[in-house]
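Many introductory courses stop at the sequence. We go one step further.
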Amino acid sequence: MLRFILRRIGISFLVLLGASFLMYILTINSGDPLEDLRESNAENREQLMERREDFMGLNDPWYLRYWNWLTGVSKCVVLQCDLGVTRNGVDVGSLLGQAAGSTLRLVTIATLAAIVIGIAFGMLTAIRQYSGFDYTVTFGAFLFYSLPVFWAAVLLKEFGAIRFNDWIAVGTISPVVVVLVAALLGFVAQAILGGDSRRRLITAGGTFAFVAAALFYFNAVDFYRNPAMGPALVAVVGVGAAVLVVSLVTGLANRRVLYAALTTVAVGVISYFALGSVLAEPTWPILIGLFVLAIILASVIGALWGGYSRRQAIFASNVTAVLMSGIIVADIALAHWASFLGLKSRPISTIGSETPNFTGGFWESFLDKGAQLLLPTIILTLISVASYSRYTRSSMLEVMNQDYVRTARSKGLSERAVITKHAFRNALIPITTIVAFDFAGLIGGAVITETVFGWKGMGELFRSGLLHVDPNPVMAFFLVTGIAAVLMNMLADIAYAYLDPRIRR
């Protein structure tokens, strides 16, 4: 395995070297870096042109310019990267640090969300092939996959930011909209769950009544401007998450795994009360440290309860701890929503990744950055979910018709065990390729999304460098995106080898 990984690293390095050479040559030949000065009427135009030629090394041969860039990048091995400067004299390394943090934060969240949602929907549609749920998800997948990014981003900007900000000032839903939303969700629910006409009617009617009652209740308590979950609801949602995780991992019949997950929830609720003063105004190192501590405690709980199912108990406890941590963070953030609205009456801005000179505390700043991250993340996630769900569905259907899956069923294994332990792992093999290519594709697609939403990320760095025929910013963009693409493909190869040991040979 180690030899396999080292071989993939060597190949990846050669791919990056060849791609960087091609990118540099294409960039410096894409236009005239002196075009704006040639059209200038300034008296010292010739001096300005000569200064830029010397500053950018335009009189040097192309291979020397590329070698100088490559020499600076090679210093990254000793953590002393020299990515050069822009034609205006700004250090590219500082620009790259800000831009990469903004874009990778957006793309990473969108990729993780798309993987979880897309694979889950793909599995369910494969299990319930040709059902109402399958047709509904298929229609949605093709719809989202066909949407142009720029058009969908502009629509979401209009309805998800501008009109939402107008609505949140009042914070109530009219009775007509309540009825329409409840009816729409009732129709979707009966299409997903399927069944005969009587069952569909009961599903639609029950969903309509529940949604309508919930929306009217939210109006009455001003939930949209003053939301709150509270410890009791946190505990209920945590228990539900634990039960769901155990049912997928081992089934509820395995009491040891179930008790481990429920104990993790109980420890999480107790910790929520005990650390209330710390969580009221934390810092990122504190939150990260508490998250690591939660994983450690979950592993200990799983090991103590697990017995003969220790491995499954540890896994279920860890997943439950992650979900419980997210629920607690969401509850605290919701509790600060009213104070956030007091500082920023129009919570979702249409431009930028955060509000300049924002004066709120930790959780208000968390909500501000989260609100700005929401809309571009939704756009990138919807586009990727479509491909993940379709590929997962086709891969699962192919695997579930294999002889070893039929053999597992004939041996009397439960359907959950057949799907999760036998079919799903082998169905993941082609999905790993999609994940690798999709991550790099999302970074490229983020260029358009960032332009629409005014994010100062990698897209802005690439666009300005290419527009001014300035190779250093463009190559900085390539350095991050190229390494990310090659790294994801290398991880996909390693995942291949783990999922199917025959690939190592």
